[in-house]
Amino acid sequence: MDLNTVLEVRDARSGGAWQPGDAWLGGGTYLFSEPQPHLRRLIDLSRTGWEPLQITPGGGLEIAATCTIAQLSRFARNASWTARPLFEQCCRAFLASWKIWNMATFGGNLCNSLPAGPMISLAAGLDGVALLRAQTGALRRVPVADFVVGAGRNLLKPGELLRSVTLPARALACRTAFRQASLYGLGRSAALITGTLDPVDGTFTLTVTASTVRPVQLRFATAPNAEAVREAVEYAVRPDEYFDDIHGLPAWRRHMTFRFAEEIRRELTESETSEGAGR
Q: How many domains are contained in the chain?
């Protein structure tokens, strides 16, 4: 879609003061999908030269905001992490054509902060930490699970930029589980729940996305039973935090959240108990 209110496209490397009506331009798959009458200038990140994916000195993974979904998918397929399946599962949770797959960016999905954003699900579920850069150059780090605060809302300040997200090595070593529901075969996610089991101390983590307006993360120091998981979800998610749109009513999203949470609990904790008993 043509954005007929945009008067200038500026290279992000050229600097300059942030102005009202500015927006960062990554892949542009959202920006050019609908009218943006409030925008006057786009700051193009495509020539920043940021390395899409890098292994950190501690064995974690740094994902640049400009990394495309296709690049992330290809990279993860060749990785040896225990958590590797979760990458492809979340990448495939996109309602996306080939063009979107190759243009949409990891950072754009997080910054749009829509409940169904599967990169939010991936990054929050693997304890990702977002690196944010202000116009002054000041940096701050925020857990992705806290970065999104509502449907289409996040902690970015005016002119602030999401530079990258780092997934820690310990999270990449976790066993994972994934559940996703949509009203349609290729529809937008109405509930996307992930689980991880820490191989070091047995911590079980459940991350609720898509069904809620923000990510909700629950941690259990030991393997919980069904009642503990149900109570934790019940108290962590307020009734008004279940998302309501044409892709699913709040009551149905709530039902699927509880159902998937229990399925993930069984998959990760009960199988671990059985394996331990057999040793």
A: 3
- Give pLDDT, residue 161: 95
What is the predicted pLDDT for the residue at 166? 98
Range of the domain at 25: 8-41
Cβ 167 vs Cβ 60: under 8 Å: yes
Helices 69-77 and 84-91, interaxial angle, to 10°? 150
Same domain, 160 and 211: no
Has residue 77 been placed in a domain? yes
Number of neighbours of residue 255 by Cβ within 10 angstroms: 16
Structure tokens at 13: 């490397």
Q: Is the Cβ–Cβ distance between 182 and 211 less than 8 Å?
A: no
Report d(CA 154, CA 214) in Å as an integer.
9
The whole-angstrom separation of Cα 226 and Cα 33 is 42
pLDDT, mean of residues 17-22: 88
Whole-number pLDDT of residue 272: 59
